[in-house]
Structures are given as structure tokens and as C-alpha cells.
Amino acid sequence: MAADAPDADWRALKAAARLPLAGAENLRGLDRVKTALEWLDFIQPDVGKWGGVTDCFRIAQMALDAGRTYCPHWLAGGVGLAHSANLLAAAGGAGLLEMDVNENPFRDQILGGALSVRDGFVDLPDGPGIGLDPDLEAMARWRISAAMLD
């Protein structure tokens, strides 16, 4: 169902569903998330789409306060994934980290193995900030200039 479908459609889906519902990566605005807490069981904001850590952490708190499971959604590069993992750890609760395990050289180069999955768990690096110290030279092949975007 489309994220911007009317609330009545979401309520009808929730009533008919035999499985828990997950979503929120494409919802817009904290008020919309508050309403979605009525029908979503797993709240999955995307740190890149939601404008960063601050609103995603608010959403995590809202989800946990409503008895929902916070599961940050991130399927791209390593920096966003590290932010999502740190948000989940900071929020607490029984959440899950949605993590793409497909081949992604850009993500893997940035992470340098920092968020490897072992027995279903990820240990966060203990460095400052999000724990990463990316090797920028190793990522040079993905570097573009602003002139290339014009």
C-alpha cells in the first residue's frame, strides 16, 4: 500500500492482516508517524529520508512509547547504516536493524568490516561519533565533482 494512502485504508489493512505490519520509511512528518503507530507494528524510518538522527530518534521514542518495535531502515551506503545501527542501540528496546546483505562495494569499503553480522548480531565500533574512520583514498573511485553533476 502507498505510504500516503488514507488512514482509513491503513486501518482496513491492519484489521484484515494476519501478520504484523511494517513500514514508515516513506511516511512524511512526525504527525503522520503518530497516526501510523495505530496500524504499524514495526516502525522503520530511514535516516536519510527523514533528515537525520534527530527525527529518527524521536520516531524511535514514539514507537517504543506506543509499544511498537523500532527497526531502522537503511539499504544504501555505510555511513547511513552506521547511523541507523547507532540509533537502534541508543533507542533500546527489542528492535531490529534492517541491513542489506547483498554485495555493495561502496558500503563495504566505508565500513571496513565494522558492522559485520555474527550470529544475527552486530557489534558497534567503539570509536568517536558513529565509530567509523573511513579510508577516503580507498573510496576515490566513487568520488565525483560538482561539475560532473551539471
Strand arrangement within the widest β-sheet reads 1-2-3
Spatial separation of the terminal alpha carbons:
35 Å
Radius of gyration: 17 Å
Percent strand equals 5-15%
Class based on secondary structure composition and strand pairing: alpha/beta
Residue share in helix: 25-40%
Low-confidence stretches: none
CATH architecture: Alpha-Beta Barrel
Overall pLDDT level: 88
What is the molecular shape? globular
For the record, what is the CATH homologous superfamily label? Enolase-like C-terminal domain
How many strands? 7
The fold-level CATH name is TIM Barrel
Q: In DSSP terms, counting alpha (H) and pi (I) runs of 4 or more, how many helices?
A: 6
- Domain module count: 1
Biggest sheet architecture? 3 strands, parallel
H/E element order:
HEHEHEEHEHEEH
CATH first level: which class? Alpha Beta
Walkthrough of the structure:
Helix content is 37%, strand content 9%. It is an alpha/beta fold. It has one domain: Alpha-Beta Barrel (TIM Barrel), CATH 3.20.20.120. Strand 4, helix 4 and strand 5 form a beta-alpha-beta unit. Helix 3 runs parallel beside helix 4 and helix 4 crosses helix 5. The longest helix is centred in the middle third of the chain and has 14 residues. The radius of gyration is 17 Å and the shape is globular.
